[in-house]
Write a structure and sequence with these properties.
- By secondary structure, this protein is an all-alpha fold.
- The chain is built from 13 helices and no strands.
Length: 359
């Protein structure tokens, strides 16, 4: 079902993924340029003598603006030849990364909106064609929830997976590991040790999170279905004096959903704490081993700085990927309910109208 709705926008999908990959590659060039600039500055400071070094502190209240301008010009004139090209390279990475992020976010949002439009149109066309037997077995409120809540959940998750967290995290993790391995295989051992451990933990997190979310979606759908049916027949409820009974029954539905929500809140707090701990431990391990390599003359300080940034890309990327996969698990219930609507048991000419309405 999902692929058939994405197929009309295959060119847009390919353009979105290509833009996203190029944006991530440019972003991953930033730590290398930053480390190179840092090494240039460090070597220049090491070579300066006390006589020609600039003042470490320039008090603003005792120095005029022209004096600051002249000091900056003097510093620029004494900069090493490779300083300016590296600085330009760093600025280029920032600009191109920002442009790429903006373009990929726009394309992913546009793709998600087009997908969501076709999904809602297809769901409505199939709902109005269903037999009376289908409606006898499904409350009206639950069907309305499929058209609104389930379609919105699937669209939001797809847009986020393609545009921000899912695909982006996979590319960041893959190329960060490649760069670290090529630049310093010994430091890569840390990432290859920490990454599988975090991945295994996140696998359990995703599975549990998906189960809780599906349970809450089912509880929310039951709430909507019950409320819709009772409000549609409110005259009958009032005629038999059942206002209090119906109110207490609906409160029971709300308590069930609230209980699941409390468990989800506790689980989310645990996940956030564990993720932060993993990030800190990865950074500490890389800093410890990288520091030993720097002191032994086997690594530049700028390279260690770049590796720290890549380590954050890895750990944060794994966290984002697990969250994105968790969201995919969350919409499994929505997808199953929508697939029931799309099931061609009593529909006619579904394939002919799937792509109608695109502009």
């Amino acid at each position: 079902m999902t692929w058939s709705l994405l197929a009309p926008d295959l060119a847009l999908l390919c353009l979105t993924i290509t833009t996203l990959v190029l944006s991530v590659l440019v972003t991953l060039c930033f730590p290398l340029a930053l480390g190179e600039l840092f090494d240039i500055i460090r070597r220049q400071l090491t070579g300066l003598s006390a006589a020609n070094a600039l003042p470490a502190v320039l008090p603003m209240w005792s120095t005029t603006l022209p004096t600051y301008v002249s000091l900056v010009k003097a510093a620029i004139s004494t900069a090493p030849p490779d300083f300016h090209p590296t600085l330009i390279k760093l600025c280029g990475c920032l600009v191109l990364s920002s442009v790429g992020n903006a373009a990929s976010a726009y394309l992913a949002s546009l793709l998600g909106e087009r997908f969501g439009k076709r999904l809602r149109q297809g769901t409505m066309r199939r709902l109005v064609r269903k037999s009376q037997q289908f409606y006898d077995g499904h409350p009206r409120g639950e069907l309305v929830s499929r058209l609104n809540s389930d379609c919105a959940a699937v669209q939001t998750t797809l847009t986020d997976f393609l545009g921000q967290r899912g695909v982006r995290s996979v590319v960041e993790i893959l190329f960060s590991l490649i760069i670290i391995t090529v630049k310093n295989p010994l430091s890569a051992l840390i990432s290859f040790t920490v990454t599988p451990a975090i991945t295994l933990a996140m696998r359990g997190i995703v599975k549990r999170s998906a189960g809780l979310t599906v349970a809450r979606q089912e509880a929310a759908a039951a709430n909507i279905a019950y409320a819709t049916e009772r409000i549609a027949n409110v005259q009958t409820v009032q005629l038999f004096g059942q206002e209090g009974r119906e109110g207490r029954a609906y409160a029971g539905y709300c308590e069930r959903e609230y209980g699941i929500a409390k468990e989800m809140a506790w689980f989310q707090g645990l996940v956030e704490g564990a993720g932060r701990f993993a990030v800190n431990m990865g950074a500490l391990s890389l800093l410890a081993i990288g520091g030993v390599l720097v002191l032994g003359g086997r690594m530049e300080v700028g390279t260690l700085l770049a590796f720290q940034v890549y380590n954050f890309f890895l750990t944060i990327g794994l966290g984002s990927l697990s969250a994105s996969l968790g969201d995919l698990g969350k919409v499994s219930g929505s997808l199953s309910r929508l697939e029931e609507v799309f099931r061609a048991d009593d529909d006619e000419d579904d394939g002919r109208e799937d792509g109608d309405g695109d502009g």
